[in-house]
Amino acid sequence: MTSPVAPHTPRVALLGLGDIGAGWAALAAAHGWTTALFDTDVHAADRATGLVARRARALAALGRADADTVERGLRRVKVARSLLQAVGDADWVIESVPEDLALKQRVLENVGQVARPGVIYTSSSSGLPMSEIAARYKDQAHCAVAHPLNPPELIPLVEVVPGKFTAQETLDTVRDWLRALGRIPIVLKREVPGNAVGRIAAAVWRECIDLVLTGVMDVDDIDRAVSLGPGLGWAAGGPHLTYHLGAGDGGVEAFLQQLLQSFEIWWGSLAQWTKLEPEQVHALTAQIEKAYGAKVDALREARDRRLAAILKALEAARKG
Ligand SMILES: NC(=O)c1ccc[n+]([C@@H]2O[C@H](COP(=O)([O-])OP(=O)(O)OC[C@H]3O[C@@H](n4cnc5c(N)ncnc54)[C@H](O)[C@@H]3O)[C@@H](O)[C@H]2O)c1
C-alpha cells in the first residue's frame, strides 16, 4: 500500500452532521484541528456551525477542553458545499452518515473519486463491517471502522475495527490520531455484527426492556439499577475484574466455584427474543417518556455534566 502522509494534526473531513458527525466535529475543533464539514441535507449543513460551536464550547465549560484552543479550532471549521470541497485536501475522512450499508458504500465510492490517494477513511458505523462497506472500493487498505460512543466528544472510548484488507499502518495511524484527540482506542481482532460495545449494550438493554415489559421494574428504577449497580462497578473495573475481586482472595477461580451455577440458572432464564412487536415498542416508548418527559435538551445537558464528572474522577484516581 501507499503509505499515507501522517501529519500529527491531520486535516479532517466530516461527512454527515447528525448527532455523531457534529460530536466528532466538536472534538476536532476543541483540539484546534482544521475541519471541513459536509452534509447532503442543506439544513443540517446550515445548522452545523452553530451546533458544533455549542458542543465544542460545552466541552470547555465542562473542563474537558481549553477555551482558547476551542475558539482557535472553531475558526478552522469550514462548512463545505460539495463533497470535493470537503475531502479534496483531507488526510482523514470520518463518515457518519446513517446506518445503511448501500448508502455507506456509495459515500465511500464517491469519496474515492475526489479524495487524494492514500486518504485514511473511517466509518462511525455502529455495527456494519468495513469489509462490506468497502467491498467495491479501490483502496480498502486505508479504511477501517472507528466507532465512537455517544456523545463522541465526551466518551473517550472508540472501537477500531479493521476490515479484511485494512493495513496495519492504517490502524496505527488511526490509533495515533484518536489518541491525539484524547480518545482511548481499542482494536477488535475481527469484525462482528454490532462491534463489541453494541453487542454488550444490546444484551444488557434486551434484559432491561424485558424487565420493564414484564412488569418487574419501572424504567427509572431499572436505569438506576444499571447505572448505580453493574454500571458503576464496570466504570471502575469492567465485568471480569469485578468478578475476579468478587470472592475474597480466591480470585476468579473461587468466584466461579461459588457462583457459576447460579449464573447458569440466570442465563437460562434471560430474555431470548430478537424482535419487539409494534405494541411492545409503543408500551416501552410510553414508559420511557413517562419516566423522563420530553425535555431532551435539559436531560442531555445533565447527563453530560455527570459524564464529565465521572471522567474527571477516574482521571484523578488514576493519577493518585
Ligand atoms: N446515534 C448514536 O448513538 C451512534 C453512536 C455511535 C455511532 N453511530 C453511528 O454513526 C453514524 C451516524 O449516526 P447519527 O446518529 O449521527 O445519524 P443521523 O441520522 O443523526 O445523521 C446522519 C447525517 O448524515 C447526513 N447524510 C445522509 N446522507 C449523506 C451523504 N451522502 N453525505 C453526507 N451526509 C449525509 C444526514 O443528512 C444526517 O444529517 C451511523 O452509522 C450510526 O450507526 C451512532
Task: Report the uncertain regions.
Answer: 1-7
The level-1 CATH class of the largest domain: Alpha Beta
End-to-end Cα distance, whole Å, is: 44 Å
Q: What radius of gyration results from the CA coordinates? A: 21 Å
Order of helices and strands: EHEHHEHEHEHEEHEHHHHHH
- Shape, principal axes of CA atoms: globular
Are any ligands bound, and if so which? nicotinamide-adenine-dinucleotide
Can you give the mean pLDDT?
Answer: 95
What is the helix tally?
13
Summarize the structure in short.
By secondary structure, the protein is of the alpha/beta class. The chain has helices at 19-30, 42-61, 67-75, 83-87, 101-114, 130-133, 168-180, 195-213, 219-227, 230-244, 251-269, 278-292, 296-319, and strands at 12-15, 35-38, 77-79, 92-95, 120-123, 143-148, 157-162, 184-187. Strands 3-2-1-4-5-6-7-8 form an 8-stranded mixed β-sheet, with helices on both faces.
List the helices and strands and how they pair.
Layout: E1 12-15, H1 19-30, E2 35-38, H2 42-61, H3 67-75, E3 77-79, H4 83-87, E4 92-95, H5 101-114, E5 120-123, H6 130-133, E6 143-148, E7 157-162, H7 168-180, E8 184-187, H8 195-213, H9 219-227, H10 230-244, H11 251-269, H12 278-292, H13 296-319
Parallel strand pairs: 1-2, 1-4, 2-3, 4-5, 5-6, 7-8
Antiparallel strand pairs: 6-7
Describe the structure.
With 320 residues, this protein is an alpha/beta fold. Helices cover 56% and strands 11% of the residues. It is built from 13 helices and eight strands. Helix 6 (130-133) links the parallel strand 5 and strand 6. Helix 1 (19-30) crosses helix 3 (67-75) and helix 2 (42-61) runs antiparallel to helix 3 (67-75). The protein is globular. Residues 1-7 have low confidence and may be disordered. The structure holds nicotinamide-adenine-dinucleotide. Nicotinamide-adenine-dinucleotide (NAD) binds next to helix 1, helix 5 and strand 6.
